[in-house]
Specification:
The protein is of the alpha/beta class and about 260 residues long. About 30% of the residues lie in helices and about 15% in strands. It starts with a strand and ends in a 14-residue tail after the last helix. The structure holds fructose -6-phosphate.
Length: about 260
């Protein structure tokens, strides 16, 4: 369930190899994708390894977790633009199979329902990548979101907007709301890899470790998933008890061995 790596580069390599392994085992795999700073080295690593190993991604389907409301794919800070910049343009994906919520949808509630249906009708997500907010959100499911929630429109917390203001230069305003896959769709994924890197995640990681499963810390729901792994670098793990850091460092993995989950 928990694995601690020395740095974000080694996590990127681990996740990239897992993605390759999954796509090789199932060329029409359905991936659940995240954005954010945490994912940048991961997509860079995956692009490199996919080129090197000549991985065929043409039949892969993907669903992104979220998108800002009021922001279209041409907006430089949209998650659609992020995905094109960091992943989609670098490999031979079939554009028709790449899905993100539409932040400009005229009826956001209807669009959210349709997005949720599309995820479930695709056969469900084989491998879901997640980051975590400093307040414990996954996707944009902020603290207090029901674990039964499906794809929906969410008002972003001030903390999340402040955290994400680093991606918006100058006076550009971080949108107030977003569409996000719900905890329900996330938990339906057959395998989940959550990545947390850097000192700014150390407190929420320690809280995740300490607490029972609670909607107050959405990230804790992963304790209920039998094939979810939390991958930390040393900085994100720094506030865990030292015995835990020792037990889960380097090669120690509690959960399924990687080869069994392809
Ligand atoms: C992004 C997403 C968010 C981020 C989280 C961490 O698609 O769903 O949950 O994963 O906010 O963001 P970073 O990696 O920028 O710290």
């Amino acid at each position: 369930m928990l694995q601690i790596f020395p740095d974000s580069e080694s996590i990127a390599e681990f996740v990239s190899r897992r993605l390759v392994e999954k796509i090789r085992a199932k060329p029409d795999a359905v991936l659940g994708l995240a954005t954010g700073g945490t994912m940048e080295p991961i997509y860079a690593g995956f692009v490199d390894i996919a080129h090197e190993m000549r991985v065929d991604v043409t039949r892969v389907t993907s669903f992104n977790l979220d998108e800002y409301v009021g922001v279209g794919p041409d907006h430089p800070k949209s998650y659609a633009a992020y995905m094109h910049e960091h992943l989609f343009t670098h490999l031979s994906f079939d554009r028709e199979r790449l899905h993100l919520p539409d932040g400009l949808a005229s009826n956001l509630e209807t669009h959210s329902r349709e997005y949720s249906d599309k995820v479930l009708k695709s056969g469900g997500i084989d491998l879901q990548l997640l980051g975590v907010g400093s307040n414990g959100h996954i996707g944009f499911n902020e603290p207090g979101t029901s674990f039964d929630s499906r794809c929906h429109v969410v008002r972003l917390s001030e903390r999340t907007r402040k955290d994400n203001s680093r991606f918006f230069e100058g006076n550009a305003i971080v949108p107030e709301s977003a569409i996000t896959m719900g905890i329900y769709e996330i938990m339906q994924a057959r395998e989940i890899l959550l990545v947390a890197t850097g000192e700014s995640k150390a407190e929420i990681v320690a809280e995740w470790y300490r607490r029972e499963v609670t909607e107050a810390v959405p990230f804790t729901v992963l304790k209920r998933h039998t094939r979810a792994r939390v991958l930390l670098d040393a900085a994100a793990a720094s506030r865990l008890p030292s015995a835990v850091r020792g037990a889960f460092s380097a090669v120690a993995i509690s959960g399924l061995p990687i080869s069994a989950s392809a």
